[in-house]
Amino acid sequence: MNITDTTHNITVSEWNDEIVTSLIPNIIVTFVYLVLGICGNILVLLVYTFQIKKRSDERYFIPILAVFDLIATFYIGSYDVFQCLHQVNFSNDIICKAAQYFVGLNTFMPITILIIIAFQRYVKICMPLKQTMTPSMKKALLSFAILLSILFALPLPFVYGVIPFKSTDKAITGTRCGRIKKGRVLIRIVYAAVLGIFAIVIVTTLIVLYSRIGYVVFRIFKTNKQTSTRSQNEDTEQEKQDGSSNQEENTMETTADEQILEVKQNSEEQCYVKSPAMPISGSQKRTINNRRISYKLTFMFFVITVVFILSYIPKIILMIIEGIYKDFWETLPTSTRSGAMFVNHIFIVNNIANPYIYAFMDKKFRDETKTFLKRAFSKIQCM
């Protein structure tokens, strides 16, 4: 008696629907990413356009980074949803190559901006006597970052394309957009090596720059603390000397006449008068305040960089696994595909988190955002 297993006799469309059903949690999470990233970065741009119109040197790159984060969030998030919906029926090779190119471009752009910011913080903190970046230098670095991102993304259309996707438990073959396995071996190897070197250089550069910045800031704080402690000790010693002087005067003969007593009392009063501290000029106050703001913003950019590194570690690990096991996605069971896809797309957090880091760590941005939202809501109510 011949029994046909009906689970094997399905079409590619039905197989794709089965996978899409398992990826519904991923699609929902990606939509949450899109809402948070788009709203957050648009708010940053609105605040810097209408509230913080005069951008200082410290905040020059914040709206620029927000622009690239906004584009990356919208494009990469939308493409992730599209990929989830077309796991085994992606058939257009041109769309696949173009999509991968722009994914790479939108990935590299914020990374290169973070490198420029780290370099700017290094110059600002570790070389304060040197001239800060001029507007023309910032524009030149920004242009170089865009050019570098374009160059690094250019090989992607030759590495990615529509490839066959065979089921391990169903007698069926679909197609998906992924890394090409056959042909162009040299291109794939060279590009993988260049990307690996690029990742190592980026992470090493960020670690070295922020380590140096952290060391300098720590040394400054330590010096200031020692100076403050020394000043307090001197004040305490002076008070002790004043107290002993007063005791000696109180033990003097009480048979002195009224005039001597009056002179004595006057001298006691003078002993308790403490010479006023040297007043701090307005320029010194501004310098101290600017330095404090600079340190806080540097720490904020350091946190942004840490979030960037942490968000890309899972993606890099998965890419290494893909390189070792060429049929990784084909052999992946449907039940665990959702988790693997979540890890594969989690790097988008790097583009989403920045506005919320600004709101948490930058008081000026937080206050200006409150003012902007109050004005916006008041205008809406008046309509």
TrEMBL record:
Domain G-protein coupled receptors family 1 profile: 40-358
Coiled coil: none
GO CC terms in record: membrane
Molecular-function annotations in GO: G protein-coupled receptor activity
InterPro entries (UniProt xref): GPCR_Rhodpsn, GPCR_Rhodpsn_7TM
Keywords of the record: G-protein coupled receptor, Membrane, Receptor, Transducer, Transmembrane, Transmembrane helix
Localization, UniProt: Membrane
Polar residues compositional bias, start-end: 243-254
Its membrane topology: Multi-pass membrane protein
Residues annotated as transmembrane: 23-48, 60-78, 98-119, 140-163, 189-210, 299-321, 341-361
Region of interest (Disordered), residue spans: 228-254
Signal peptide: none
Name of the protein this chain belongs to: G-protein coupled receptors family 1 profile domain-containing protein
Naturally occurring in which organism (per UniProt): Mytilus edulis
